[in-house]
Design goal:
about 100 residues, mainly alpha, elongated
Length: about 100
């Protein structure tokens, strides 16, 4: 009995790992970040994030700009924002694929 529950647990773990690997691979192709995204984030700050729809980051950088550290932090938030969006798109693609 214990062996079957361990086996089922291992199968579930393998499926989760497989799905995460699929999401990571698809996200690599869907990312829209460029090699100079950090520069645009540094130069334009909250406008860059707002223009691309990263509203939470735009507000955060705007608030941090009043403390004069937003300009330093903004470039480090650009690439993770694009990566997160690509992963969300990849997850939606896999859900749609699974539903069809």
């Amino acid at each position: 009995m214990a062996d079957s529950s361990i086996s089922a647990s291992n199968q579930l773990t393998d499926k989760v790992k497989y799905r995460q690997a699929q999401i990571d691979e698809i996200a690599e192709t869907l990312t829209e970040a460029t090699s100079i995204s950090w520069l645009w984030a540094f130069l334009c700050g909250p406008l860059y994030f707002a223009f691309h729809g990263f509203w939470g980051r735009a507000v955060l950088i705007l608030c941090l700009n009043f403390l004069l550290i937003g300009f330093i932090i903004a470039p480090f938030l650009a690439y993770p924002a694009w990566r997160e969006r690509a992963k969300e798109r990849a997850e939606r693609m896999l859900i749609i694929e699974g539903a069809s």
